[in-house]
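User: Can you help me understand a structure? I only have the sequence.
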Amino acid sequence: MAKPKYNRILLKLSGEALAGDQGGGISTSTLEEIAAGIKAAHELGTQIGIVIGGGNIFRGIAASASGMDRASSDYMGMLATCINSLALQDALERAKIPTRVQTAIAMAEIAEPYIRRKAIRHLEKGRIVIFAAGTGNPYFTTDTAAALRAMEINANVIMKATKVDGIYDKDPVKNPDAKKFSSLSYIDVLNRGLQVMDSTAISLCMDNKLPIITFSLRDPANIARVVSGEKVGTIVT
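Assistant: Let's start by predicting it. Here is the structure, written out as tokens:
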């Protein structure tokens, strides 16, 4: 078995990734593919924490832009991440991987409360830990939650799985001449306004020297490739 480059990672998945090509909700076939990709990385011996967005079910920022109270809409978004987390937990456990969901908002009947030391213990025992409900606070995105949880569990890297295969100077879907970066600095990302993660998350990673690797989830095998140290996507350091 190849030795992984990273001993402990924080994998950030967008909620839209779980929808596959159906546009919204949860695609069970896509969920199974993602679970298989995570399983391959887990079998390399890497400890894995996961943060999932909720955009496939509800977008708090979009709702607040339409007049809904921002705090209320953000709490609804947090609940959407819990639905996604339970769905991913089910897919992983059907793939025979022990998994725990920890939520930043107490809901004892369906998940553990987030306790940092307990999360680290789960990771050390070979369990995958899914962190749900963001930070538990409105006005903070799941990107910021991912950066925060990565720091708290002492992850070596944040791996952000997206629809595109790295970071470009402009939207590659709309601009065929878009240039892909193999590496960037945190300051470059902030100054250029690149949509990698929100500025709070980037600043948090910069202050704590935590690298971010963005790559395409269209091929779930990329998760194991990044963990193995292959040059996939774009790295921000």
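Now, to help you interpret it: The chain has one domain: 8-236. The two ends are 28 Å apart (CA to CA). Let me know which part you'd like to focus on.
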